[in-house]
Amino acid sequence: MRAVLTPTNLQELFSMLEQYPAALPIAGGTDLLVLLRQNGLRDRRPLLSLAEIQELQGIREKGGTLSIGAASTFSRIIADPLIAEHAPLLARAASTIGGPAIRNMATLGGNICTASPAGDSLTPLHVLAAKVEIASPAAKRIMPIEHFIVGPGRTALREGEILTRILLPRYASFPDYGFEKIGRRRAMAIAVTSFAGLVRRAADGTIETARFAWGSVGPTVVRIPSLEQALVGAKLDADYLCQVAQIVASRVAPISDVRATADYRRMLAANLTVRFLEGLLD
Ligand SMILES: Cc1cc2nc3c(=O)[nH]c(=O)nc-3n(C[C@H](O)[C@H](O)[C@H](O)COP(=O)(O)OP(=O)(O)OC[C@H]3O[C@@H](n4cnc5c(N)ncnc54)[C@H](O)[C@@H]3O)c2cc1C
Fold it and tell me: Nearest C-alpha to atom 23 of ligand 1 is from which residue?
């Protein structure tokens, strides 16, 4: 038997954590329960459910920031009107996660804390300049997502801390956005490579701002700031797109594993970027 603790607010959660310091936070359980099962269920630490905690729920807008509760499921994110208006890129990526049953359970906070290089919410959150809010009994701290995820499966979360909210600055909209993931099949598949892009263009069609991120091609999400800068004002023609592809292929750092070779991933990262930019030309 394993104890399952079900606090309903953060204060209760922290007092339970004080009593059971080894308890494992569980949100949707779609990563954690798989992991515990893989370990043969020998791990008997209590589970600390985050599902009923008020402070981890809800999606709201305040002072130019969109604040998403860490325990928001992907189904909720997809259906939320504020996300549809201010962060449709996140909704698009969310709609590719698992299948409907997984999206009803899996949470944004769980995806971030798992810190998988293939986590599908991570590339959108990076280009949207997301910050994460972390709480402990003593204090709250806020940090950019790129500082929070420090390696495959590793975050800046300290013992006794909980990821409470994800904060997105509310930008003037990016009319051109895209998320694509290539897996070994269409649904319920981990990304072999993924791409998220945001572009804003001037009246004459030239790029004003570009933000790109790639998943599954490095230990954490890959960004190439020099490419984003070079694209500002650039004329997108076939030669230029060829150069973009070469830059992307040379700057990502994938590994070979059971799902794909490093070379294939490099090629996919370049092709997904070019496909997105070609879409702008259309
Ligand atoms: C069949 C299947 C298909 C899947 N498909 C995809 C996919 O297409 N794309 C994708 O990215 N992922 C996929 N996943 C992985 C998983 O569903 C996601 O990573 C999901 O977002 C995890 O969220 P969760 O709420 O279930 O996390 P949980 O399993 O509850 O938790 C994961 C980890 O995060 C910690 N944690 C959770 N929330 C918090 C918090 N607020 N504060 C501190 N720690 C926390 C837990 O302690 C645990 O270590 C799939 C999983 C399955 C089983």
Answer: 110
Mutate which of 111, 120, 132 for ligand 1? The one with the most ligand atoms within 8 Å of its CB, which is 111
pTM of the model: 0.96
Q: Show which of 169, 201, 235 is a domain's final residue.
A: 169
Lowest mean pLDDT among 40-49, 135-144, 179-188: 179-188
Ligand 1 mean position, distance from CA 120 (Å):
11
Measure CA 95 to chain center. Answer: 12
Instruction: Tell me if 53 CB under 6 Å of ligand 1.
Output: no
Verify whether ligand 1 is closer than 6 Å to residue 113 (CB atom). Answer: yes
List, edge to edge, every strand of the sheet that includes 24-26.
4-5, 47-49, 24-26
Q: How many CB atoms lie within 10 A of CB 103?
A: 21
The pLDDT tens digits of the residues spanning 191-210 come to 899 999 999 998 888 899 99
Cβ neighbours of 98 (radius 10 Å): 17
Across 15-25, average pLDDT: 95
Q: Which domain holds residue 260?
A: 176-281
Average pLDDT over residues 10-34: 96
Residue 111 has pLDDT above 80, yes or no: yes
Domain total for the chain? 3
